[in-house]
Every structure is written in C-alpha cells, then in structure tokens.
Write a structure and sequence with these properties.
alpha/beta, TIM Barrel, ten-stranded parallel β-sheet, 12 helices, 41% helix, globular, binds iron/sulfur cluster
Length: 362
Amino acid sequence: MKINPNYKTKQELIDLYNQPLLELVFQAATIHRQYHNPREVQMSSLISIKTGGCPEDCGYCPQAARYHTDVDAHKLMTVEDVVEQAKNAKANGSSRLCMGAAWREVRDNRDFDTVIEMVQAVNNMDMEVCCTLGMMNEDQAVRLKNAGLFAYNHNLDTSPEYYGDVISTREYEDRLKTIDNARKAGISVCSGGIIGMGEAVEDRIGMLMSYMNMETPPESIPINALVAVEGTPMEQQKPIEQWELIRMIATTRILFPQSIVRLSAGRTKLSMEAQAMCFMAGASSVFAGDKLLTTPNPEFNEDKEMFNILGLIPKEPFADGEKPVSQPDQIIEEKKRKEAEKELRREEARKGGFTPRKVTVS
Ligand code: SF4
C-alpha cells in the first residue's frame, strides 16, 4: 500500500493531523510496524559538494547568494575528497550518501561530469547514492541513473499555495517536472518539505496532497524543521514546537505506509525523548554527521548513544531496492577518447621533430 486509501479529501487529512496526539502516534506506529522493521533506522550522510553562491531565492536557505549569511562559498569538491568523506560516513554506520550542490539546475559541463564520477565512485563503495543538484532534464537524469544513482532529492518544500511566499525564482511546476524526470529515468524519488516557515497546517497538508496526487509517491519523504539562519528572510521565524514535528511525521507515515519518512533538519533542537516519539510515529531514517549541508546536526557519537538507548539498528544499504550497476558514461568516455587522440598526435609531432608554426595575428 503506497498511499493510504482511507484519506482522500483535504478535510480528512486535516482531521487526521489534528486528532489527539497520542491517538495519531498510535495509529502511525501501528502502520509503521506493518510495513517496516521498527528497530531499523537508516543513517544517511549529507555532504555539500558545492557550497553557496546559489542564484535562487529560497527564503530558508543560507546558500542563496543574495542573502548575507556566514556561509563561505566553495567550488565543487574533488572526487577524491568525496570518496574520503563517504568512507568516513560508511565507517560511522551510514548506508546512504546524499550529495548536495547549491545549483539552480544541472548544466551539461565539466562539473556535472565530475558529479557523474562521484556517483560512480560512491556506488562502487556499496552505499546508496542520492544527489540533490537542483532542476534537471530527462537526459541528465538518465546519465545519473547510468552512473549508479539510487535516488534524487528534490523537495516540494510546502503547498502550491504557499510556495510563492518561500521562493520566487522558480515555480512549483518546475519542481514537479524534475521529480518526473527522475522517475522516468528509473531513479528512486526523495522529496519532502520544511515546517516552521510561517505556513498554516493547511499548507503542510497541501504538500502531502501533492505527493498523494502523484502516480507513484516518493519512496523517501524527508520532513525538516526550519533552522532559521541569520541573514535569511526567515531568520525571525520562531522554532516550531516539537509536537508539530511529531504530528507531521505521524501523518506522513499514515498516508504513505511504505515510504521512508526521514527525520531531517532541526534535530539538534529535539530532545532524545522527542526523537524517540518521532521514531515511534514512523520516522525510519535520520541524517548522520555534524553538518546538514551548512546547518548543525547531532554528531555521530550522540546518535550512536541514542541508537543504543532506544535499541535501534542502522539499516543495511539497498534494503529497499536493488543496487544500481555503474556503467561507463558515454560523454566522459568520448571526451577521454578525444583527449587521448590529441595526446597521441602531440607525441607523434614531438617524435617527428615537428615544430609548431609560429602564427602572427595582425
Ligand atoms: S535551497 Fe537549493 S536552490 Fe534554494 S537557494 Fe538553497 S541551494 Fe539554492
């Protein structure tokens, strides 16, 4: 059961969300146990492979170039550095690596070739690879899929009605199109939202309805609590009550029984007891490591202690889908072939004592 057929109208969903908290959690926990091993929680690591300088204006994001935040912009990481971080994440129990680049969209350039190589390298380490690179077209999705990408993250963030209050540089439709492109390429979809941005409960439900209206809902739904960062338009937002996050997770679990519900940003503000309630309510994944892109997150050791106390066990990679096979990328292989040809010609020219003709430009 990918979507719970018992809830269809917006009012039914709002009533579900607003029911007495313990009733809601009990209902979510019951469904969670039918479809998942409640002790298993997937640990994912999220690294920022290209930080800051983004031309978009997402109101919550410290990486938008137009906001004055403490984020230092960095160009794309090297494949070697990503592999080092992946090894560290794997050694600490992560079975999935999510690589985020602060781009509006994927461009067909050298940087994208490097991302393709990163995907190949991390997939070959037996970790699930997820990317979040902004908007992408169908061809780019196919290249990522062939490289061994397991999942693509592209959040709807909120309802279609509230979207314009959060972001003005792209449309809700653009998001849906990219999700569709990932889906068509056979990539698993990770898409969720943020609560605490000043939206109403109706907007939280509106976002969930957008996922219910998809032919196939996302396999993975991250639920984030806003981390209000100084310098962004949302810096003054009051932190949400932890009960709201638990409600949102429970409601998501009930509506999407088979999806992974990810307890994502904002975990540093939650007590261990509140996190335990989130797991009870159906959260089946957390992000591990002391940074979530640019915002703080609990350290590996704190999570290990929490897992021990709550009796949780990290989920193995590829428990929810086959490991993709990384294939050679045709575009990169063609570039390599042309480069090798050029090098051969240069070598032959050197052997034959060829001296390049001096050209004078007038
Ligand atoms: S959320 Fe992504 S697209 Fe939006 S400003 Fe931040 S990096 Fe750019």
